Amino acid sequence: MIHQLVHASKYATMPSSSPITTSSTPLVLLVIYFLLVLRHQISFSNAASTIKQGQTLEEGEILNSSTGVFQLTFYIQRYLAILPVFGNIRYEPVWIANRDTKVSSGVLSLDRDGVFKLNGDNDVSIVLYSPKPDQVARTRRNDSSITATMLDNGNFVLVERDWSTGNEQLWWQSFDHPTDTLLSGMRLSFNQTTGESKALTSWVSDTVPNSGAFTLGINPNNTRELLILQRGIIFWRSGVWDAKNKTNLPSKWMNQTDSPYKFNYRFFSSENNVENYFTFTGKSNSTILVWVLRSMGELQSFQFDMDSKGGGATFRETMVECGMRDGEITTEGCEKQEKVVCSRRSASEKFEMMRGRVDANYSTPLTLMGETNMNASRSDCMDKCMSNCSCVAYAMADSTDQIGCLFWSDGSRFIKDNELDDVFYVLPEAMGRKKEPARTDSTPPARTNTSSAPPKKSPAVTNTESIATKSKSRKKWWIFFPIIGPVILVFFLIVLRWKRIKRLAKFKEKLMGKGVGSRPSPQQVLTQLKTTTHSNEDSEQCPDFQLFSFDCILSATNNLSASNKLGEGGFGPVYKGKLLKGKEVAVKRLSRSSGQGLQEFKNEITLIAKLQHMNLVKLLGCCIHGEERMLIYEYMPNKSLDSLIFDPVGRQVLDWRKRLMIIEGIAQGLLYLHKYSRVKIIHRDLKTSNVLLDADMNPKISDFGTARIFKQNESKCTNRIIGTYGYMSPEYAMDGIFSVKSDVFSFGVILLEIISGRKNTSFNIQFDTHLNLIGYAWDLWQRNVVIEMMDSILANASCSPPDDNSVRRCIHVGLLCVQERAVDRPTMSEVVSMFANEAMTLPSPKQPAFLVGRNVVAQNTREESEICSHNDVTISTLSVR
């Protein structure tokens, strides 16, 4: 199960049957406080944004998006919903999975076959997605995995990931099933062939999310026009969108460069004009835009500015309101409604919204035909009340099986009380006042006065009796005095803990050398990159470095399509691209789970941009767009070394001369990093997949995401080990100690793999005598038959067969590089000399690492100059790619 602690304090209750004395209250509250703190620490470590196969999400649990902006949870314990969270304020749902079917004790599950469904104790089962037979077959063969993820744009997606290719296929998404809210990037659409429509449908009322009377969608008559329908009758129309976007929407909402309302609207069609689409996006990456279709047909818009203080709504306005004011329609495009109205009333007469209760001594319930057997919305109730001259008030009744209306006749009295949850819509005369202009908005008064937040929908009325007869007595405030003292004490303890956490955070930042400054924004990082990579001092080192726009990358890679995907590394997928001038590039798109922040991203770029060597892949530029971070490299047509050397067909093109050239090229590249670059760099993740081959088979080392900068003669210790099994040195894999000798070990493994054409980890422990390729080479060396290790393709080559002495010498160098003790391994400078000077006598190799166990004496690791701190309570993390 997915556990996440984001439980709002407003849901906390205290049983009335458990009396607490004044003297014991502080102790009890302190115990509760520390239990909550402990639960927070435990739950926080289990935070997740993804449901995997076999997992569930239950009531009380929350699935957060990676930034926490959107949450998937059970809303008022009956509806599975997505709720936005801005500035520590949880707003009302933007999407509900089961709006017309309530569930009790709901459970969202994703089973092993990929069936995605919502179950409840009331025998309710709602299947969100049922996979096709071929999809089920793939999951049962373990060829792929299925995950459901809450994304930062408010979309909840079900995705299949192919293990062999890394490609992802979208199975289902909440964006395809809109409710009453349109988010940035969502689409309204209508298909002329199938008649399928994706449209917004209002709530029944401001408190009940069932499907209401109004819909917002695209005109089905193949015109680029938005329509709001009320029970199938046109209520409002936008007018046809032309090239200049001239519509009945207020002009300030259109795509104007000087407009403070940051909407980019798009109305487009499919290639064969079968389907029309409407969508909008923000003009800024830091804004989230929302349209909401209200229960009375109003269309409201909100903009959440993530950069603003508190992160709340920076503006909210009603775009469409088809009411009457002084006899005039309030919004252009509203259609005149032919409705039956009592002859004694004006069509513009308004009901006033109020919280409170009915005065039982002066109330006359009114029975109107049809209110008990209809799935009525608030607009239906209002129209019915307006048509009857005796009706002075109405309310929504939400029962278990249906939604209905309650009405009251002339003479009924209502008592206003904003502390109560029941909502009524009353004519001024029923409240003992003369008729006067009433409220025109359709939202109950907010409990809190937050001018920057959109109005919240009030809690739903649970049954019809509560409206007619419920009466709450005034609270006796004196009973709260005994707990004021303990509450103040708990508040004081919370403040102390908050200050302590803040001090610890500052201390950790100083300890890690990151300072205490604020996190840089993408714009700040871009500015720093421009300054760093184009400074006078470095103009010769990286004259071609560019900052690419996101649109340029999308155009070059065909919108990052799967057909352009070259592969996927530890930090994300790589795409082939073609710039406007025809130059081919490789675009590495860093995944959000890569662990790299903006500052680390900037450091990596400024590091690689200054590295200029023929055996290092050249960084051409970068792109930062919102959460997207990309590196643009020169394109290597022959892809990576592992795609050839481990392929029975591919490695036939690698004769001995080319293999030797690749080995020596990798050695030259490492030597440059360790000794001749402006700073000493340790790669830490050198492997065959990180060696790319250009058109002439020249090797180029790539993927510097884990590289570290060092002073000379220095080694370091880390408790976050990042590398790949089979290529990590023993001291790094076991103790987290890494130095230049760690890269030497990885080079030795690659050398042996190039000569043999086999992976170091390709040996089967059950059937092979040796644990790995290193053990196999060592056994052959001891038996003086090491030449048997050579790839059979090389041994059987008819033209340019390899010289046995040359092969034997290369294997000798490889065994020297993979020796167990780091101090016994040669430096890359010595390795290059061994290749260049064939007359040089090589020392005999000692036992290599990872044979049958590890035999390292503690003093051996102390022979190196170490800068290594050990923490007895820290558990090292092994991240293998």
Automatic annotation (TrEMBL):
Region entry Disordered, spans: 434-467
Annotated Polar residues bias: 440-453
Keyword entries, A-Z: ATP-binding, Cell membrane, Disulfide bond, Glycoprotein, Kinase, Membrane, Nucleotide-binding, Receptor, Serine/threonine-protein kinase, Signal, Transferase, Transmembrane, Transmembrane helix
Membrane topology summary: Single-pass type I membrane protein
EC number(s) on file: 2.7.11.1
Location(s), subcellular: Cell membrane
Reaction catalysed by this enzyme: L-threonyl-[protein] + ATP = O-phospho-L-threonyl-[protein] + ADP + H(+); L-seryl-[protein] + ATP = O-phospho-L-seryl-[protein] + ADP + H(+)
One Pfam family this sequence matches: PK_Tyr_Ser-Thr
Stretches assigned to the Apple domain: 342-431
Ranges of residues in domain Bulb-type lectin: 48-171
InterPro entries referenced in this protein's UniProt entry, alphabetically: Bulb-type_lectin_dom, Bulb-type_lectin_dom_sf, Kinase-like_dom_sf, Pan_app, Prot_kinase_dom, S-locus_recpt_kinase_C, Ser-Thr/Tyr_kinase_cat_dom, Ser/Thr_kinase_AS
GO-annotated molecular function: ATP binding; protein serine/threonine kinase activity
Listed SUPFAM superfamilies: alpha-D-mannose-specific plant lectins, Protein kinase-like (PK-like)
Domain named Protein kinase: residues: 560-840
Membrane-spanning residues: 477-498
UniProt entry tagged with the keyword Transferase: yes
Coiled coil: none
Gene3D superfamilies in the record: Bulb-type lectin domain (2.90.10.10), Phosphorylase Kinase, domain 1 (3.30.200.20), Transferase(Phosphotransferase) domain 1 (1.10.510.10)
Protein's name in the database: Receptor-like serine/threonine-protein kinase
Organism of this sequence: Stephania yunnanensis
Source taxonomy: Eukaryota, Viridiplantae, Streptophyta, Embryophyta, Tracheophyta
